[in-house]
Every structure is written in structure tokens, then in C-alpha cells.
């Protein structure tokens, strides 16, 4: 075998809920994106954004990349940029877990922490692009983000459910995962329902956002989401713990949020096949109070 680390991105496992789902007429499947080499679903988008930009000539080895991120995209970009020999600065909210900061640094990225959250990080990165000649891939407005999931996540789910999927559930952050997967699945079967998970007002769930209008990702198309469920930080935390304890699925808080929504959905359906994204691994939250 001559595969590289990049060849290990995607084709993640789809596993059936054996404890949490109690509706015998509904199959609930979790797609384990933490099995990607960088530990999250964002490996797909990072690879597609960097590879496509290189192929188009938008960036080269001399480019200085910068990106605002709440964590997982930054880790993925740090890994992929390192593989391609590119320089990258990653800007994160200052409350980011130390595991995230250290992982990005390990892959060779420069990490800048910003006191004004992800919105402040985005403004800082935009300023560096405008005034200092940096290049931003801009996951929030980059079609190569959602196209990564159109090329890989959607087809894998369709294949691994033998086309029987009825509902797809995903947390909504940059919205790349839900946009690309929705586009593909709707092409296969327009009746597949796409369900987004958003935080309730006042809830802070890393990786899930209810964006102010001026920061709404440009790649987001509301027509591609059939329903949006709101989930509280408390619900997401409890579910992340239950996923680990009862299903053996060690994940972060946003995955707990998506699973909360998936189980809510399972309880109201007469029958169906639900796929819920588990977007990363729990080990990058151990310094937080998530599993305290």
C-alpha cells in the first residue's frame, strides 16, 4: 500500500445507535467524522479548499494564508497547509481549549487568540488581508467548503445506507457540511429531509452558531434546509456525555447538539433512517468542563 495521510480523509464509519434511540421503527446512524486524520469533519473542507486554490493558482508556496476559526477547521487547515508546505496563521477566540491551540501549533501553524470571539477573529483576519497582503480561504464564503461534502460526505452516506436515508441531521456552524450533503442527497432523492441544529438564544455551543445577519455565512442557502431545531448548551453537554457513556462515541459538544436533535426527531417519526454527523472527537475538549 502506498496511501498517504490525505488518502485517509473521508470514508468514515456509519454506526447504529444501540442505546439512545428507543424507537424500534427508526434506525439512527452516527457518522464518525472524528476518524478523519485531523480528528474532525473539517479535514474534508480544508483539503478541498487548499487543493482547489492551488490548482487554480489562487495561492502558491509564497502565499501567507490566514483564517479565522473556532477550532476544528483550524486544525484541519494547519495539517493540510503543512503537508503542502504552506504558511498559515490561524485566529481563534481566546477561550479556545489548549488542546486545539497546541494541535495547530504542532502542525506548524501560527496561532493568534482574539478577545472578541469568532466575530472579532473574522474581522482581524479580514484586516490582515486588506492591509498586509495575507490570503484568506474564507470557509464562510468559499464554495470549495460545501463542495467537499457534495463530493464525499453525501455520496458516502447514500452509499452506506443503500439509498434508504430519510433524514440527515447536522450542526450548523460555517454550514458547509449541511449545504454540500443536502445538495447531493436531494439530487438522489428530493424527499430526504435535511435538519439543522442551532443553539437556543444565549446558549454557547462550540461549533454551532446562530449567526448575526451580517456574519451569516455566504455559502448558506436556507432552501437547502427543511427544518431547524434549537438545542440548549445544557442539552448538548448532557448528550455528549451520554454518547460517550452509553454508545461509546467520544465526541464534542456540537455533536451532542446534533444527536439531541436526531433523537428528538426519532421520537416523533413513525419510521425512517436518520444519519447524524458526529463532527469530531472528545479528546480536544478534555481541558474544558464538558466532561467534568
TrEMBL record:
**Which intervals hold domain Tryptophan synthase beta chain-like PALP?**
7-280
Q: Which GO terms describe its molecular function?
A: cysteine synthase activity
Q: Which cofactor does it need?
A: pyridoxal 5'-phosphate
UniProt catalytic activity: O-acetyl-L-serine + hydrogen sulfide = L-cysteine + acetate
- Which domain of life, per UniProt? Bacteria
Its EC number(s): 2.5.1.47
Pfam short name (any one): PALP
| EC class (word) | transferase
Query: Which keywords does UniProt give here?
Result: Amino-acid biosynthesis, Cysteine biosynthesis, Pyridoxal phosphate, Transferase
Identify the InterPro entries for this entry.
Answer: Cys_synth (IPR005856), Cys_Synth/Cystath_Beta-Synth (IPR050214), CysM (IPR005858), P-phosphate_BS (IPR001216), TrpB-like_PALP (IPR001926), TrpB-like_PALP_sf (IPR036052)
Q: Which family does it belong to?
A: Belongs to the cysteine synthase/cystathionine beta-synthase family.
NCBIfam families from the UniProt entry = cysKM, cysM, PRK11761.1
UniProt name for this protein: Cysteine synthase
> What is the native source organism of this protein?
Sungkyunkwania multivorans
Amino acid at each position: 500500500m502506498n496511501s498517504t495521510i490525505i488518502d485517509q480523509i473521508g470514508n468514515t464509519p456509519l454506526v447504529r445507535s444501540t442505546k439512545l434511540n428507543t424507537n424500534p421503527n427508526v434506525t439512527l446512524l452516527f457518522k464518525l467524522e472524528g476518524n478523519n486524520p485531523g480528528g474532525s469533519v473539517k479535514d474534508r473542507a480544508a483539503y478541498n479548499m487548499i487543493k482547489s486554490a492551488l490548482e487554480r493558482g489562487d495561492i502558491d508556496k509564497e502565499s501567507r494564508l490566514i483564517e479565522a476559526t473556532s477550532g476544528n477547521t483550524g486544525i484541519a487547515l494547519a495539517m493540510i497547509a503543512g503537508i503542502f508546505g504552506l504558511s498559515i496563521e490561524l485566529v481563534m477566540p481566546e477561550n479556545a481549549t489548549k488542546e486545539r491551540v497546541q494541535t495547530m501549533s504542532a502542525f506548524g501553524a501560527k496561532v493568534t487568540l482574539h478577545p472578541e470571539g469568532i466575530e472579532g477573529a473574522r474581522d482581524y483576519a479580514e484586516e490582515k488581508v486588506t492591509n498586509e497582503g495575507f490570503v484568506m480561504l474564507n470557509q464562510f464564503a468559499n464554495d470549495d467548503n460545501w463542495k467537499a461534502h457534495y463530493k464525499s460526505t453525501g455520496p458516502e452516506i447514500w452509499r452506506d445506507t443503500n439509498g434508504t436515508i430519510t433524514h440527515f441531521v447536522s450542526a450548523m456552524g460555517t454550514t458547509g457540511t449541511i449545504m454540500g450533503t443536502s445538495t447531493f442527497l436531494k439530487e438522489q432523492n428530493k424527499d430526504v429531509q435535511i435538519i439543522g441544529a442551532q443553539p437556543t438564544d444565549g446558549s454557547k455551543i462550540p461549533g454551532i452558531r446562530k449567526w448575526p445577519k451580517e456574519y451569516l455565512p455566504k455559502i448558506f442557502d436556507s432552501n437547502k434546509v427543511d427544518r431547524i431545531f434549537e438545542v440548549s448548551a445544557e442539552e448538548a453537554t448532557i448528550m455528549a456525555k451520554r454518547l460517550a457513556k452509553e454508545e461509546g462515541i467520544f465526541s464534542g459538544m456540537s455533536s451532542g447538539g446534533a444527536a439531541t436533535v436526531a433523537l428528538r426527531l426519532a421520537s416523533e417519526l413513525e419510521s425512517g433512517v436518520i444519519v447524524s454527523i458526529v463532527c469530531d472527537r472528545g479528546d480536544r475538549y478534555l481541558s474544558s468542563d464538558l466532561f467534568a
